[in-house]
Description:
CATH superfamily: Lipoprotein localisation LolA/LolB/LppX
Oligomer: single chain
Radius of gyration: 17 Å
Mean pLDDT: 76
CATH architecture: Clam
Strand order of the largest sheet: 7-8-9-10-11-1-2-3-4-5-6-12
Helix content: 10-25%
Shape: globular
Amino acid sequence: MKQCYLRILMIALITLGSVFIPQLSKAEQVGLDPKLQKIVSRVHEAYEKIDDLKAQFVQTVEIMDFNTPYVSKGTLFIKKGKMLWDYVEPSHQQIFVDGGGFLYYVPDHKQVIRSKVGGRSDAHLPLKLLAGRAELEQDFEISYEIEAPLPGEPIRLRLIPKKKMGLIKIVITLVRVPNIEGLMIDQVVLHEENGNISTSAFEEIEINHGLDDALFVFTVPDGIEVLDAP
Length: 230
C-alpha cells in the first residue's frame, strides 16, 4: 500500500500542470541551460492558457520480478489546481487531489485514504509541492533525459530527487499542442528504487470545455471507512 500511495501522489504531482508548472518555471533562477529554460517557459505558457482539461489515461506498472505488467485505465479531469482520476479498469477507483490534500477512494474496499499537507517528512513532499509549499528546484535536479531532440520529436525531461522518496528519477515527455501554442505533458514515467517502473500515458486530450466544479467534490458515502495517512 505504501508504494501504491507514493506512486499515486507522485503521478498526481507531475500531472497537475496548473500547480506543477508554475513551480517549474522558476528553474531559470538556478542556472539551467538556456535551451532548457526556453522549454520550461513554453510549458508554463501553455498551462497558463488551460482552464480545464480532460484526457483518457493508461497507467502501466512493471513490477520487479513479475513478467506481466499491471495495467489500469480511466479518465483524468483537471481544473485549476484540482484533479480527479476516475479509474474504470481493472476496478472502479477515484482519486481526488487539490492544494490541501488527497483522497483515494476504493469502493470495493469500502475505504477512503485521506492525507493533508503537513509536517516536514519526505513522505509529505509530493503534497507540499502540490500545494505550492515547496520549491521544485530545491527538491529535484532537472535535466534532459535525451539530449537535443530533433525538430518535431517529443522532449523528455529528467527529474532526479535530491531527497529520499522511493524514486530514482521521474521522466516527463512533452509534446507540442498547436491549438494553445505550447508544450504539454504527454507521459510520466516513475523509476522506483525497488526496480518498479510506472508509466502514465495520456490521449484524447480536451482543453477548456468548461468542466463543472461539482465534479471535483467528494462526499464520503455511508458505510465507508476513512483512514488518515501518516
